[in-house]
């Protein structure tokens, strides 16, 4: 079967599209020149129908991603697989990926790249090191060229010890890192995308969760979006990422400890009961539709923080129904727009909000997953139009948060921007 034929009849081992995606979204897989996986996700009817097809050939002369290379002295050295070490004081795994120092940066004062590797290919442009083979796309997904974690074929994942001392465990950081580009417009904003495009992004999150959950060694799948130069975004393009950890990340581990203890004490689901309690309290609810509710948590840390939860008990993104995926796209769109309006610059236009959107979903193998619940934690470092919340001594040194505002004031500002009921 040719590559093109395989693309038009793509079948996946674990992802099964719902009714809407089966009729309105087409996934076309291929591989980039260095062997990384790449997927087009099209919602354009001409590509969905098959009347048009995507470019599957990556013309770049890239070496195989795991090939040996020559060092400064001309000696052949093996691919430097990312390592991770366990902090004996906290139990946390710390990936160490030196190859990321060479990744391109095209925004901010430290910019190193004149072109945008996330943009569609521009025939004739002097910059031809972009990651997308075609000259246009809707949504694309691909393995990160400079991953923090990656499984290297044939490399041992056995536990070793730094300096042969059992205090310091060391392993390969055998995870996976992917990039999701939301739109080909490299100067666009996620907040300006139509709900239909964000619906395709939601499908991308579900697709990757379903497939990656069955890959060897993966314990947690974390889709997220960084937005804004102050956050540390290195590429100015509407995109997100999916980090797939070979361990349970510290934030989720803390939540699992709490949710499991709550279940053992009460028999209930802590995240479910938090959501219901917020609905009953009412004061901090900022949005609601058929399937989702958004609220400022009663113990919010950040100067702008909103948690988004499905009304139905759901463990992971791939468990969402068609209706829930549409309602999530609508709510996410509304949240981004209202986030941009949150800080008043005096002209009534608001500002492009810097934020992190972090999906917390149940771990893959841990038994405590049964008592967890899918949720989105959306927050911003910005505390005023011209001020950033810096994590200084108390937050960074002791992880003891000091809030600059109150959850009630945050929700009050959201109520000024728009109504709670956002159903059409």
TrEMBL record:
Residues 81-247 form the Galactose-1-phosphate uridyl transferase N-terminal domain. InterPro entries: GalP_UDPtransf1 (IPR001937), GalP_Utransf_C (IPR005850), GalP_Utransf_N (IPR005849), HIT-like_sf (IPR036265). Pfam families: GalP_UDP_tr_C (PF02744), GalP_UDP_transf (PF01087). One of its GO terms (molecular function) is zinc ion binding. GO terms for biological process: galactose catabolic process via UDP-galactose, Leloir pathway. Keywords: Carbohydrate metabolism, Galactose metabolism, Metal-binding, Nucleotidyltransferase, Transferase, Zinc. Its EC number is 2.7.7.12. The active site is at residue 239. GO terms for cellular component: cytoplasm. Residues 103-131 are annotated as: Disordered. It is an enzyme of class 2 (transferase). Its cofactor is Zn(2+). Residues 258-372 form the Galactose-1-phosphate uridyl transferase C-terminal domain. Belongs to the galactose-1-phosphate uridylyltransferase type 1 family. This is Galactose-1-phosphate uridylyltransferase. It comes from Bifidobacterium tibiigranuli. The lineage of its organism: Bacteria, Bacillati, Actinomycetota, Actinomycetes, Bifidobacteriales.
